[in-house]
Write a structure and sequence with these properties.
- By secondary structure, the chain is mainly α.
- It has a domain of 67 residues.
- Helix content is 38%, strand content 2%.
- The chain has a two-stranded parallel sheet.
Length: 171
């Protein structure tokens, strides 16, 4: 553009920006957090400790297409219209390969091994042998209810007929 204006003899308002010879340090000392994993440079990410990888980076999502040239076409790429979940399903595996995430997968597998396959699960099945009565563990079978009023009337010797009659003086 500058060359064009010089050849035409017209005035240009374009400015040429020249970088300084000494690099200027950035005022931002911490990286942005919880951005998709492909937002960060691969070598920088792989140099982080495992704790920082989990805190700084969202390792469960991607934001960009694997080939950036596809994003710069005149015709819009079909995957650019996708929602985040759909984009993750399509491109997650390819985008995450260069990043060193093997340790995180191992940590998840180790936790599952330590806890066992059924750790923390609750068995909701009731024993079939004592149906209709109180079982050994003190629980009632499904559909069976216990009211504290029943125990009170039995223990105190109050007749059920007396309970149904209204007290005198109460209207």
């Amino acid at each position: 553009m500058l060359q064009y204006h010089k050849n035409m003899g017209t005035v240009s308002r374009l400015c040429t920006r020249v970088l300084s010879k000494e690099p200027i340090l950035s005022t931002f000392t911490t990286p942005p957090t919880q951005m998709p994993i492909d937002f960060y440079h691969i070598k920088w990410f792989n140099s982080l400790s495992e704790v920082k990888k989990r805190v700084i980076v969202d390792v469960h999502s991607v934001a960009f297409l694997p080939n950036p040239e596809e994003s710069l076409q005149a015709k819009r790429h079909a995957d650019e219209k996708c929602l985040d979940r759909a984009l993750n399903k399509i491109h997650y595996e390819a985008a995450v390969e260069p990043y060193d995430l093997q340790d995180e997968v191992d940590v998840v597998e180790d936790e599952e091994d330590r806890n066992g396959s059924e750790a923390g699960s609750i068995d909701w099945e009731y024993p079939s042998e004592n149906e209709g009565s109180e079982s050994d563990d003190g629980l009632y079978a499904p559909g069976e209810y216990h009211y504290e009023d029943d125990d009170y009337s039995k223990n105190e010797g109050i007749n059920e007929e007396d309970e149904n009659e209204p007290e005198e003086g109460i209207c």
